[in-house]
Design brief:
The protein is about 35% helix and about 25% strand. By secondary structure, it is of the alpha+beta class. The protein has a single domain, classed as Macrophage Migration Inhibitory Factor. A two-stranded parallel sheet has the order 1-2. Strands 3-4 form a two-stranded antiparallel sheet. The longest helix is centred in the first third of the chain and has 19 residues. The protein is elongated, with a radius of gyration of 15 Å.
Protein backbone atom coordinates (compact mmCIF):
# COMPACT_ATOMS: atom_id res chain seq x y z
CA UNK A 1 0.00 0.00 0.00
CA UNK A 2 1.68 3.24 -1.14
CA UNK A 3 1.77 6.16 1.28
CA UNK A 4 2.73 9.63 0.08
CA UNK A 5 3.51 12.24 2.73
CA UNK A 6 3.67 15.92 1.82
CA UNK A 7 4.85 18.58 4.26
CA UNK A 8 3.76 22.15 3.62
CA UNK A 9 3.72 25.47 5.43
CA UNK A 10 0.36 26.09 7.12
CA UNK A 11 -2.08 28.49 5.55
CA UNK A 12 -0.63 28.38 2.03
CA UNK A 13 -3.16 26.04 0.38
CA UNK A 14 -6.93 26.13 0.82
CA UNK A 15 -9.14 23.03 1.14
CA UNK A 16 -9.82 22.81 -2.60
CA UNK A 17 -6.11 23.02 -3.45
CA UNK A 18 -5.34 20.32 -0.88
CA UNK A 19 -7.94 18.06 -2.48
CA UNK A 20 -6.35 18.71 -5.87
CA UNK A 21 -2.94 17.75 -4.45
CA UNK A 22 -4.35 14.52 -3.01
CA UNK A 23 -6.12 13.63 -6.25
CA UNK A 24 -3.12 14.44 -8.46
CA UNK A 25 -0.63 12.51 -6.34
CA UNK A 26 -2.97 9.52 -6.22
CA UNK A 27 -3.36 9.65 -10.00
CA UNK A 28 0.44 9.80 -10.42
CA UNK A 29 0.96 6.74 -8.24
CA UNK A 30 -1.80 4.82 -10.01
CA UNK A 31 -0.22 5.67 -13.38
CA UNK A 32 2.95 3.92 -12.18
CA UNK A 33 1.55 1.01 -10.18
CA UNK A 34 -1.84 0.35 -11.76
CA UNK A 35 -5.48 1.15 -11.08
CA UNK A 36 -5.88 -1.71 -8.59
CA UNK A 37 -3.82 0.27 -6.06
CA UNK A 38 -6.06 3.38 -6.11
CA UNK A 39 -8.20 2.21 -3.15
CA UNK A 40 -5.13 1.62 -0.99
CA UNK A 41 -3.04 4.66 -1.95
CA UNK A 42 -2.72 7.01 1.02
CA UNK A 43 -1.81 10.68 0.75
CA UNK A 44 -1.10 12.57 3.97
CA UNK A 45 -0.73 16.35 3.98
CA UNK A 46 1.14 17.62 7.02
CA UNK A 47 1.14 21.34 7.71
CA UNK A 48 4.17 22.80 9.43
CA UNK A 49 3.71 25.92 11.53
CA UNK A 50 4.73 29.16 9.81
CA UNK A 51 8.34 29.98 10.67
CA UNK A 52 9.11 26.40 11.78
CA UNK A 53 10.51 25.35 8.41
CA UNK A 54 14.01 26.57 7.69
CA UNK A 55 15.72 27.05 4.34
CA UNK A 56 19.25 28.36 4.06
CA UNK A 57 19.34 29.13 7.76
CA UNK A 58 16.17 31.23 7.75
CA UNK A 59 12.66 30.34 8.92
CA UNK A 60 10.15 30.25 6.07
CA UNK A 61 6.77 31.82 6.80
CA UNK A 62 3.34 31.53 5.21
CA UNK A 63 3.69 35.13 4.05
CA UNK A 64 7.02 34.41 2.35
CA UNK A 65 5.59 31.39 0.49
CA UNK A 66 2.60 33.41 -0.70
CA UNK A 67 4.98 36.09 -1.96
CA UNK A 68 6.93 33.44 -3.86
CA UNK A 69 3.65 32.28 -5.42
CA UNK A 70 2.83 35.87 -6.41
CA UNK A 71 -0.23 35.94 -4.15
CA UNK A 72 -1.30 39.10 -2.35
CA UNK A 73 -0.19 39.12 1.27
CA UNK A 74 -2.39 40.58 3.98
Amino acid sequence: MPMITVKMIEGVFDAEQKQDIIRSLTDAMVAIEGENLRPVTWVVLEEVRSGSWGIGGDGLTTQAVKQLQGQPVA
